Amino acid sequence: MKLYSTPGFSSLADHIAMLEAGIQFDLVKVDLETKQIEGGGRYMDINPAGYVPALMFDDGEVLTENVAILAWIADRAPELAPQGHLGRFRLLEMLSFLATEIHKRFPTYLSLPEEAREPTGQQIVHWFGFVAGRLERGYLFGETFMVADAYLFQLAWGAAQLGFALPEPLDEYIARIEQRPAVQAALHREGLA
């Protein structure tokens, strides 16, 4: 199995979650500007949309999108997903929220001239504030790290790298999650630590 990834991008969430789940995989670096795969090959042949992540299974099937890949990981490692009759749907609800309300605003923010970024930046901070309210017990779903936390960590960590002033307790959340062995391993493997 291969995880196609670009260091520091949203694929970091999938990388972390796969390590947390103990899933064996090869990490394949993608240059998003050139759409080339490290070691040779065109990334557009793997994912015609041209962005990461993409998870290629041993049979050649490819799964894309953070929500889908993180849900797939959670199905294989139930300890990384909320339990109960609505657990799977609560996970999909949170992953979809992170993808649509926070993640998808970053490309818009980064593509704007610096003097025009403030309204989109305020929206990003607003939605981080909404999610921060869910962290009173430490993680998005209580006292246990789950795949959704890998996604929120990546988004908040990336926002902090861009200089966003994040609402509390996100600074503490980032620092705490960054110390997890799987997170340290992923950051090291991606050349970010």
What do you see in this structure?
By secondary structure, this protein is an alpha+beta fold. It has helices at residues 11-21, 66-76, 87-103, 105-111, 118-132, 147-161, 170-178, 181-189, and strands at residues 2-5, 26-31, 36-37, 54-56, 62-64. The chain folds into 2 domains: 2-76, Glutaredoxin, CATH 3.40.30.10; 82-182, Glutathione S-transferase Yfyf (Class Pi), Chain A, domain 2, CATH 1.20.1050.10. 49% of the residues lie in helices and 9% in strands. A 5-stranded mixed beta sheet has the order 3-2-1-4-5, with helices on one face. β4 (54-56) and β5 form a beta hairpin. The protein is globular, with a radius of gyration of 16 Å. It comes from Rhizobium sophorae. One of its GO terms (molecular function) is transferase activity.
Strand tally, please? 5
Helix content: 40-55%
Q: Could you state the order of secondary-structure elements as H and E? A: EHEEEEHHHHHHH
CATH topology of the largest domain: Glutathione S-transferase Yfyf (Class Pi), Chain A, domain 2
Number of helices: 8
Number of domains: 2
The chain-level mean pLDDT equals: 97
Per the principal axes of the C-alpha atoms, what is the gross shape? globular
Strand arrangement, major sheet: 3-2-1-4-5
Class inferred from helices and paired strands: alpha+beta
